[in-house]
Records
---
Amino acid sequence: MSSGRLRDLIRLLVPVAVDDGEGGQSVTWPTTGPEFWAQVLPMTAREQEIAGAVQSLATHKVTMHYDTRIVGTCRLARVAPSGITLQILGMRDLDGRQRMLDLDCSEVIE
């Protein structure tokens, strides 16, 4: 993929566990993190009921340059154009050479 197709600026959001003051922990998503150029494309939004539970399926496909900081527990926030926050559901190294990543993501509704 040519770099000219990577037109969306995204920020990596890494979860941080903080004490909740009652002996437990809660997860926060700091808004500071590394930024990357990516291609963010919408997919069909749908949910599937499996064994009585609703499972979210991917709503967006993100293609970007490979980076070892991208892991499945992270989120991506679109910076330009501003907008959605995405939870990473799955990752694929497109050519097996650690050059490009394909990420299946679902939109975070808060």
---
Amino acid sequence: MSLSETQLKLLQEFERGLDPQHPEHSRIPARILGYGEISTVFAIQAEGLEGLAFKRLPLFRRMEEVDRYQVTLDEYVRLLTEEAGLRLPHHEHAAFLRPFGKPVFYIVQAQLPAQSIGHKALHHLPSQGVRDLVWQVLRELRKVWEFNRRQERVRIGIDGQVSNWSIEGLDPDNPRIAGLPLSYLDTSTPLFRVGGAEQVDPELFLRSAPSFLVWILRLLFLKDVVDRYYDFHLVAVDLAANFYKEQRPELVAGAVGWINEFFRGEAAELGIAPLSENEVRSYYRQDALIWRLYLSMRKVDRTLHLRLLRREYPYILPGRIQR
């Protein structure tokens, strides 16, 4: 899949007419497929763009930043696929200047069936299917840490949340996943280190933050948040805590047990410390509080930009998130 010249022009036209506060009311309407901390995923309702998912990142100030990010992203994709052995859906890039003169970067993928995405699948998989899903996610994550262990120069980080995986070939009428391959979806945060140096500029993660919070986020949170994606134990804690976020708290105990069983068995050589339900619960409560406050402050920042400063606010914020 690659974008044609016509599709690129349509995407640019969409960006020119985008209403970040109400994307569905844009000149070319869009349907939100998902939100991330630094990006939003759309289905753009225009003839010629059907069946595609567009992940939008309005983080950049200059095209030189876009160029560096794209090189880092391409290398991250190569590391995940060629070195670690993960499956990724094919994707393309598109970058151009927005009407206000700053760049926007789009990652474009084929739109996947909603029921195949891990957090959606949780709500129609039987108990054994949920266990199989967790187990297969852990097997994919193990590939990353096996690569990290094979050599010392490069370290790959990854966000293992269940919403970042697609179950290829899942039949919603017969939801069994044993033997079905998983694809990893979240490449927009290309975390890897070479000789201990982060290859993506961590400051990009702060671009969407309110200016009055940037210094405290940089001082107190940025390093810890980035570091946790290089720690298999903490990635697994986040995976288990996902069941709270996805309104399946009754599955947390099972997830903790399955993860510990995996660490004792198939991943025993990695020496990963086991999880506890209390650890997962505490992690989730703290994480949910932080992100709830962060989203509230971003909404305040949006109001300041639009009403007081009379400036654009390029980020698209979710409504109330149920946690």
---
Amino acid sequence: MGSDAEFEEIQRRRMLQLRRRLAEEQRRAESRERLEAEKQAVLRSLLTPEARQRLTNIRMVKPEFADQLELQLIQAVQGGRIRPPITDDQLRLLLSRIVQDRREIKIRRM
């Protein structure tokens, strides 16, 4: 009889741990969703519709690059380097600078 009680206690503890993990994962997911919604709201206020569409197109091809670009845009506006609204032409110019900087890095093997 003692082993049945011990087994039930172990099961109860495992279930409690699983519930805690699930609750924590849900809180993290909600936090990520909330932050993403805030970021998108800020971007809507910073970018013209054409620039937002270009950023959406970039996201479909290179999601990580789009994330970095969004953060750079927000930081540039906060730092006063760019004034909103950011037009599609301004975004294209910024993109060409970023791509050009990346292409200048060359690695030579000897």
---
Amino acid sequence: MKKLRVAVAGLGNIGRKHLDAFRELSDRYDVTAACEPSAQNTARCAEERTLPPLLPDFNDVLTRNDVDVVDICTPHHLHYEQILQALAAGKHVICEKPVVGSLEECDAVIEAERSTGRRVMPIFQYRFGVGLQKLLHLIRQGIVGKHYLSTVETAWQRGAKYYGVAWRGQLATGMGGCLLTQALHAHDALTFALGRVRRVCALTATRVNPVEVEDCAAASLQFADGSLASLSVTLGSAEEISRMRLCFEHLTAQSSLDPYTMTSEPWSFFPRNDEAAARIDAALADFVPHPEGFVGQFLRFHEAMTERRELPVTLADARDSLELLTALYHSAADGVAVELPLTSDHPSYAGWHSVLTPTD
């Protein structure tokens, strides 16, 4: 089996999780290098695992002949330039969220991917949770019926220790708050299951921490089919949970409450009646679980790359996520409902940062 040679750029919390996932797939990946400017992050990583060869600078990664894929786990504001540099150097790219900071930048990366012939996979590991995959299986089987209304709760706790990392909580470097950093994956999981959003209304507030970005948010969505969803996010919850509850014509699905793996098992499926229960049981009897989380996404990436198939997550997927995020921030800033899709003449196409201001 052909191995892909990977360099991990950034050994913070997420970078370490990526490193562990690649090593769990050691029959498919070799981690040939890493880059991390922070001595503290490097030391923390070295306490728990053997480090790959360390390079002093991101540019050093790009000149290596033993690197096929650059895995970008650096602070948010660095992603755009680093993706473009990696593509220009002939490397494939895996990039943590947010891939970039605007729809305009995302469109530029899509063009760079096309022109270089390299491939870019954004990280949306929640998509591969077995619980969510069961729901998607039922949707594809035509069992759920019409969607009525869903709710997504992201109730986490973040305080001074979390924001002690210099780039977090600042608009210029963090690029956003809880909608961008904590809840983005959960909201993507919702739209992955239900399809495109047509209209959003949102409110944001900075209530928990003295930072430049929002740490509480609430929003209402309307999907293309007219169905609805409600989103709530806070970083001030004493008990950390995440929860999705999706109400359909023939069943209601509820996720795990685990704050960081809510798309994984256990999920509950409540049938409307005995007939729906029988159809759900029959459909799930044929369901075959596959690896989830980072391991699941990286496994699928390897298969796509070596078998020349579509990536498990594409830049088009990331663009949809960024479009929703942009609409949420624009709605919160202007106090109006925002219609999607957003075109290139939209005021926030070049970035939501100009309208993103914390509220008291």
